[in-house]
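Case study 2.
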Amino acid sequence: MSRQLRVAVIGAGPAGIFASDILTKSDVDVSVDILERDPTPFGLIRYGVAPDHPRIKEIIKALKRVLSNDDIRFLGNVDYGTDLKLDDLRLFYDAVVFATGANKDRPMEIPGIDLRGSYGAADFVSWYDGHPDTHTEWPLEAESVAVLGAGNVALDVARMLAKTADELLVTEIPPNVYEGITKNRAQDVHLFARRGPAQVKFTPMELRELGHSPNIDVVVHPEGFELDEGSMDAIRASKSVKLVVDTLQNYIAKDPEGKAHRIHVHFCQSPVEVLGEDGQVVGLRTERTELDGTGKARGTGEFIDWEVQSVYRAVGYLSDNLSGLPFDGTAGVVPNDGGRVIDIDGEAMPGTYVTGWIKRGPIGLIGHTKSDAAQTIDLLLADLDVLVSPEQPEPEAVDRYLDGRGIEFTSWEGWQKLDTHEILLGEAEGRARIKVVPREDMVRISRS
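Prediction:
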């Protein structure tokens, strides 16, 4: 190719940033524009990780180094499907890589799930992480709460519901979140897992940290704590599973200390109905399950009603259906072959690729995201000879287009201004950072 290859990456989370990094480190002369609907980069690292887990946010340091590359531009506050479409992108780029992730709740089809007081975990996470498109207030009147799910998001939700506002004041939570949590009335948070302790998706570190709060007793109930042959196989095959089961057993052996808040962990309880009165959650009905020898669960026909005033479902994330692309609504992914987008006729869409959760579903850790991006970029590079050249490949053409649409896009330099601003806000109160929440404020500071 006689000129520089131009690639658009849609989404500035780890998947999009890793793909950009791998692409610019290839032997091809390439420039990448990362387009992101938020004014800020980093995706779920900024808006999906609980604020009391700063170690996980260390990944941002590596992502910052990538975005400092002169061959990569960050264009924030640009919403794909609204501000521009696939046909628009083809005017400026040889190829487009979608890395939009998954940021909404997977539905749960049980009676009563739509009652007042029933929430999706993704919405709650967006609130306490200060996402600009979420309500600034959150109702926290329930004294007894149910959390449905057996993954790290369920642990995060349970912990955030049980911690005090002052415990969280050392983190980067914005003032509206601190104010909201000061009004939280939750005393008992019940986490329900459909199967046994060897089948949960907790990571050992997250589970151990559950008991580090001076205000929370972790109560793992022995009822339903089953280890069948399938569970023992899982324990023998995975050090991580063994650590999780050992940690849970340690919690069982430990007597509650009478702390103000309690997180209860219940195994082999499958939610079957959210109970309500006058449209409001008043309870949760579960069916007792048992393991079948292979680690799978089956119902026993024994039902239990739990008195709770709110329910949070943490049963997985779901990706958005992207304009101009095919979509598998059941799996929540764009149909693809290794990263090449496949249209409804089973043919590869020219110059169109996916990586991350929009490609494989919301599973896997950061390491999986990097290898996944490498696979997609390898396919893109293999397709160089068949890519269709854009009419306006110069970077300035994209800026002119966005300006002409009246889109106030942000830049990497703008993020650095906002980053400094948030750090200074935190320093004034002895904290590492305080997040700015309103979108218009983030855009104003970034473009100042």
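The radius of gyration is 23 Å.
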